[in-house]
Design brief:
mainly alpha
Length: 59
């Protein structure tokens, strides 16, 4: 988030952020503890907000 607030993400930052979102999409539904699931779901939401202006580049 700090890089986004200081002027934006480069291609590697965008790719990393979208990768983290994809990982969280897989993992959050598997977390059985409510507090932990809620915490990581909130992180996923923050990442999605930061990534929304960017389209990931093709690899």
């Amino acid at each position: 988030m700090r890089r986004e607030l200081k002027g934006g993400l480069d291609d590697s930052g965008i790719a990393c952020l979208w990768g983290c979102i994809a990982d969280l999409d897989k993992i959050v539904p598997l977390i059985n503890e409510e507090y932990c699931a809620s915490y990581f779901a909130k992180l996923r939401t923050m990442a999605q907000v930061a990534a929304a202006p960017y389209v990931p580049t093709a690899i």
